[in-house]
Amino acid sequence: MNVDEKIHIEIYNPLWKSYFNQEKLCLGRVLEGDFICIEHIGSTAVPDMTGKPIIDILVGVLNFPLTKAIIQNLEHIGYEYMEKASVIGRAYFVKRTGQPYNVHVVEFEKEIWKNNLLLRNYLISHKDSAQKYAQLKKKIVGQGVDTLLKYSALKADFIEELLQDAHCN
């Protein structure tokens, strides 16, 4: 799969939470003993947030980098390991059959873990910031941007600002 996939955004769907809960159970079964915590992150985790209809899941593990067994277990349930899209401290997996999912496996309680949860919680508790973020996403897509890398790049500075605000609160 090409990491620079086509994207679109949708208004908030209350089913996103149940999709996460279903996939969390599945992930818990295949990663049994290898993970500490599984969290719903990204725009689909923020009530009333516009976003890509892809459920982002953060998996916290104690041992990083991942073993081949963990990678194979995720591949066994339909995930593709996007090794070239992974970054230091994060292994990235995608599932695009049925409901789409992104899984970000990171070391539990390290910076990537903390920042993802901090941003999610900040957006949930600061509706005005969440609204501004949603407007930015609509503007970007409204300008004809329909690929992941460009979309992500155009909102990166705003996300960094949100994260800085979240650290101050």
What do you see in this structure?
With 169 residues, the chain is of the alpha+beta class. The protein has a single domain (15-168), classed as Beta Polymerase, domain 2 (2-Layer Sandwich). The chain has helices spanning 15-30, 68-76, 111-125, 127-142, 148-168; strands at residues 37-41, 55-61, 80-81, 90-95, 101-107. It has a five-stranded mixed beta sheet, sandwiched between helices. Strand 3 (80-81) and strand 4 (90-95) form a beta hairpin. Helix 3 (111-125) crosses helix 4 (127-142), helix 3 (111-125) packs across helix 5 (148-168) and helix 4 (127-142) runs antiparallel to helix 5. The mean pLDDT is 96.
Question: Key terms for this structure?
Answer:
5 helices, globular, 46% helix, Beta Polymerase, domain 2, alpha+beta, 169 residues, five-stranded mixed β-sheet
Kindly report the CATH topology: Beta Polymerase, domain 2
At CATH's second level, what is the architecture? 2-Layer Sandwich
Could you name the ranges where pLDDT drops below 50 across 5 or more consecutive residues?
none
**Major sheet size, sense and barrel closure:** 5 strands, mixed
Q: Structural class per helix/strand content?
A: alpha+beta
Series of H and E elements: HEEHEEEHHH
Number of domains: 1
Cross-sheet strand order for the largest sheet: 1-2-5-4-3
Which outline best applies?
A: globular
**CATH superfamily name?**
Beta Polymerase, domain 2
Helices and strands in order:
Blueprint: H1 15-30, E1 37-41, E2 55-61, H2 68-76, E3 80-81, E4 90-95, E5 101-107, H3 111-125, H4 127-142, H5 148-168
Parallel strand pairs: 2-5
Antiparallel strand pairs: 1-2, 3-4, 4-5
